[in-house]
């Protein structure tokens, strides 16, 4: 196909209140995902990462809705598509791996049956064929003794095995796009590393596109090619992972990178971003990051701050991108991140 597989344009998500008043939670978010590409979306908790992913999948919480924008998959607008057609895309075209498999898996259904369900419904496989496919997928995601494990219920498996079951379910219909909502957050470090390597190997094997939401910059460095940084419901910087990590052009991105402990250098204290994210019911005027920004100037306090291109593949919402750039040059700890 030509053009992006997924295109999100000016997406605004929020709630409606009495009198027609709306409160945006995610505002004017735009990004593209090319076929086979891995995009990471990072930011603090509450920045709107997971809501953006759930809007793509059509799984927004009750009371939260898309207020404006477009979400196109393969040239088709998901937001104007009939609900039945959109549901039919989930599985064969788009799959999702959730943060906590214990709450995403059916607790009273054997895990093998949960993997086999989608191929039987969407691909028209027989019951025997879908069970064989489930066992094959369990082998591919590294589950030992799949015949025995397939008969287990979710509570009988460890967190790492449950997450592998979620990945097998996501792959069960050979989707072209997988949405990963912090799938390694609840796992210990060794299991997290295994799951990330598994996702990378499966992406190479199946050639799927991946959107990976996380607050862990190390996860992004290990799994993604491109990066979108979110703050207070808005994307504030985009670019390749290497470019953004080595030369951040937004003070928030610089603050995130400096907050990561570096074990190869001596630090008297850990860095942090002062203050707290704003209340989205009454966000600050101008740049939403300016109350926490050490580079803020008078012109940061009012106006709109959309993404501004720095090059064909780089953009930032900061109107003074040279300030964090100059600070990076004086900070080898960040430059080597």
Brief overview:
The chain is of the alpha/beta class and 337 residues long. It is built from 13 helices and twelve strands.
Description of the molecule:
With 337 residues, the chain is an alpha/beta fold. It has 2 domains: 6-224, Rossmann fold (3-Layer(aba) Sandwich), CATH 3.40.50.300; 250-335, no CATH class. The protein is built from 13 helices and 12 strands. The chain has helices at 49-57, 83-89, 101-104, 111-122, 127-140, 146-149, 159-171, 189-206, 217-223, 241-246, 251-258, 322-329, 332-335, and strands spanning 6-16, 22-33, 38-42, 65-73, 76-77, 94-97, 177-181, 209-214, 226-231, 234-240, 308-309, 315-316. An 8-stranded mixed beta sheet has the order 6-7-8-3-9-10-12-11, with helices on both faces. The longest helix is centred in the middle third of the chain and has 18 residues, at 189-206.
CATH homologous superfamily classification of the largest domain: P-loop containing nucleotide triphosphate hydrolases
Strand percentage, roughly? 15-25%
Assembly category: single chain
Give me the count of strands: 12
The total of helices stands at 13
- In which range does the helix fraction lie? 25-40%
Global morphology: globular
Q: Domain count, please report it.
A: 2
User: Alpha-carbon distance between the termini?
Assistant: 35 Å
Biggest sheet descriptor: 8 strands, mixed
Assigned CATH architecture of the largest domain: 3-Layer(aba) Sandwich
How would you write the strand order of the largest sheet? 6-7-8-3-9-10-12-11
Residue windows where pLDDT falls under 50 for at least 5 positions: 330-337
């Amino acid at each position: 196909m030509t053009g992006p597989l997924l295109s999100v344009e000016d997406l605004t998500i929020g709630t409606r209140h009495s009198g027609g008043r709306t409160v945006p939670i995610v505002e004017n978010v735009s990004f593209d995902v090319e076929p086979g590409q891995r995009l990471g979306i990072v930011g603090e908790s509450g920045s709107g990462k997971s809501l953006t992913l759930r809007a793509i999948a059509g799984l927004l919480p009750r009371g939260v809705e898309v207020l404006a924008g477009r979400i196109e998959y393969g040239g088709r607008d998901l937001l104007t598509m009939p609900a039945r057609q959109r549901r039919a895309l989930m599985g064969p075209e788009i799959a999702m791996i959730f943060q906590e498999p214990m709450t995403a898996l059916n607790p009273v259904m054997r895990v093998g049956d949960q993997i086999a369900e989608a191929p039987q419904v969407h691909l028209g496989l027989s019951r025997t064929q879908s069970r064989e496919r489930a066992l094959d997928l369990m082998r591919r995601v590294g589950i030992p003794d799949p015949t025995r494990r397939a008969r287990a219920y979710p509570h009988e498996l460890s967190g790492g095995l449950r997450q592998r079951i979620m990945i097998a379910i996501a792959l069960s219909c050979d989707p072209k796009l997988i949405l990963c909502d912090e799938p390694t957050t609840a796992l210990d470090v060794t299991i997290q590393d295994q799951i990330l390597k598994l996702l990378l190997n499966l992406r190479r094997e199946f050639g799927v596109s991946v959107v990976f939401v996380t607050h862990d910059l190390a996860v992004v460095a290990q799994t993604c090619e491109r990066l979108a940084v979110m703050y207070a419901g808005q994307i504030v910087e985009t670019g390749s992972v290497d470019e953004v990590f080595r030369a951040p052009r937004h003070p928030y991105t610089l603050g995130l990178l400096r907050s990561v402990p570096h074990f190869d250098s001596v630090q008297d204290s850990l860095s942090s971003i002062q203050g707290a994210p704003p209340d989205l019911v009454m966000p600050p005027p101008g740049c939403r990051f300016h109350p926490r920004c050490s580079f803020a100037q008078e012109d940061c306090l009012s106006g709109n701050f959309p993404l501004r291109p720095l090059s064909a593949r780089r953009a930032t919402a900061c109107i003074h991108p040279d300030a964090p750039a100059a600070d990076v040059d004086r900070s080898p700890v960040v430059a080597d991140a």
